[in-house]
Design goal:
alpha/beta; TIM Barrel; 9-stranded mixed beta sheet; 17% helix; 25% strand
């Protein structure tokens, strides 16, 4: 398949269990829950279209483009990892979107692993992941079917109408995170998430530290 990539960049992971870890972000173009266009804000079936702040439309971002083979994309990704990092540090890549599992297939995952990468994916959980070594972060969205019920992290944007965290606690994840919904009431949402985590210790608070640090 041809891989459509919005952007590739090097930064620190800002969320979840790997917060603060240097990583290459591979942002795939496209999503199955909404188009990413402002005119469609009220049309997304997953509800996330009303608050999503990620640009995943097109292939015009830094490092973006069309890649015809897994090898070609892996080569492009490798150029963003520091050449002098040394063999003791395993390169880390976060596949995101949009919805990365629309494009992250078994051949690409295998090619990345063969090139030495630890591969993570941040998904809305509506698509089956490819077989292979994959750190899986699932972020369920309201009114969207949840197909992926086990993985490494479940990260729930909070609060979402109809998305009670307790409804997800039976799922098989290593970590459960609440991430405050960004936007006009970010401070209030953060306080709500903080209070929920204190009252329900199964959950941990995940902040978008890349926004606090003003990095990509």
């Amino acid at each position: 398949m041809t891989y459509s990539v919005k952007e590739i960049y090097y930064t620190l992971q800002g969320e979840g269990a790997h917060t603060g870890r240097p990583a290459v972000f591979l942002r795939f173009a496209g999503c199955n829950l909404w188009t990413g266009l402002e005119r469609d804000r009220d049309k997304g079936p997953g509800g996330c279209s009303r608050w999503c702040d990620t640009d995943f439309v097109g292939t015009d971002g830094p490092g973006g483009g069309k890649f015809r083979t897994p090898a070609e994309l892996v080569q492009a990704v490798r150029r963003h990892w520091p050449a002098d990092a040394g063999a003791a540090v395993q390169p880390f890549i976060v596949c995101t979107g949009g919805e990365p599992l629309l494009q992250l297939d078994a051949p690409l995952l295998s090619a990345l692993v063969k090139d030495g990468w630890q591969v993570a994916a941040e998904t809305n959980g509506t698509q089956d992941p490819p077989a292979g070594a994959l750190w899986l972060t699932v972020s369920p969205k309201a009114n969207a079917p949840l197909r992926v019920t086990h993985g490494n992290e479940l990260k729930l944007v909070y609060p979402q109408i109809g998305m009670d965290p307790q409804h997800f606690e039976h799922l098989q994840f290593d970590h459960f995170f609440l991430q405050p919904l960004d936007g006009p009431d970010a401070a209030g949402n953060t306080q709500q998430a903080l209070e929920y985590c204190l009252a329900h210790p199964r959950w941990r608070l995940s902040l978008q530290t890349h926004k606090l640090l003003k990095i990509p």
